[in-house]
């Protein structure tokens, strides 16, 4: 294994681990004030300068090298894709975390590649193999086990939270599929910068509308947790995963990302004091196994395919 490949694995694993801390930051902040729109607005306000900076850097570099920029229509489409996908999916995720544990939220979100597969098959001419179908079945069987275990204790809250986070995974899957056609023209860095900058503005405007003003008051602890969520669970992992994808395949990155639910579950138990039973362990293992089967199936189906996905931003 050469040095660049090893670095790719390290970057991808570190990015996946940092992405996994998002729910922990949010649940800790909700102990002070369970205000999803405010937390989301502050998180995206923290991230916005970095994503705008990425856009400015790409534009500056293109002008310096005399390369043409994408047409205006494509910029508008990227902005709409960011607002439709990342803004909406993030809002659903943050609302869902009010009702369910960080562990369940992570497992529900982790199923979005299966949704990408199904939606791609239904509307974008994709194919479903027997192996990918098996992986999907194992994934959702494991998720159902964890859901049924949590249901007696959480009741309606578990149902509401799970539905909201499933909506997050669904909208993010649609966003990923829509993003593919933009990446080949705009490049992953420019598209991600434009789409996430737009979604950040949408999140901030959403809070202003629903709160009826510009009152962003909260505790100092809430501010610090929102800042940490923006930097350590959004900006840093976004660029780390991008650096990883430039060195290893998307399939390898998908396999490495299997540490994501493990990190979230470990932190949820250690930091938040959430319980973890044998049923949680079995269900979580099934979800991770199912996604692993799915990733292997994708690798075997198109081993030589060039990665055309955008920077893997955390679903919400």
Give a verbal description of the structure.
The protein is mostly helical. α5 crosses α8. The longest helix is centred in the middle third of the chain and has 31 residues, at 156-186. It has 13 helices and no strands. It has one domain. The protein starts with a helix and ends in a 15-residue tail after the last helix. Helix content is 79%, strand content 0%.
Q: Brief overview, please?
A:
The chain is mainly alpha-helical and 316 residues long. It is built from 13 helices and no strands.
Give the topology:
Blueprint: H1 3-19, H2 22-30, H3 36-65, H4 72-96, H5 102-109, H6 112-123, H7 130-154, H8 156-186, H9 188-211, H10 220-245, H11 250-256, H12 259-270, H13 278-301
Helix pairs in contact: 1-10, 1-12, 2-10, 3-4, 3-9, 3-10, 4-8, 4-9, 5-8, 5-12, 6-8, 7-8, 7-13, 8-9, 11-13
Radius of gyration: 19 Å
Largest sheet: number of strands, sense, barrel closure: none
The percent of residues in helical segments reads: over 70%
Number of domains: 1
Any low-confidence stretches, pLDDT <50, length ≥5? 303-312
Structural class: mainly alpha
- Molecular shape: globular
Strand content: under 5%
Q: What is the chain-wise order of helices and strands? A: HHHHHHHHHHHHH
| End-to-end distance | 33 Å
Could you give the count of β-strands?
A: 0
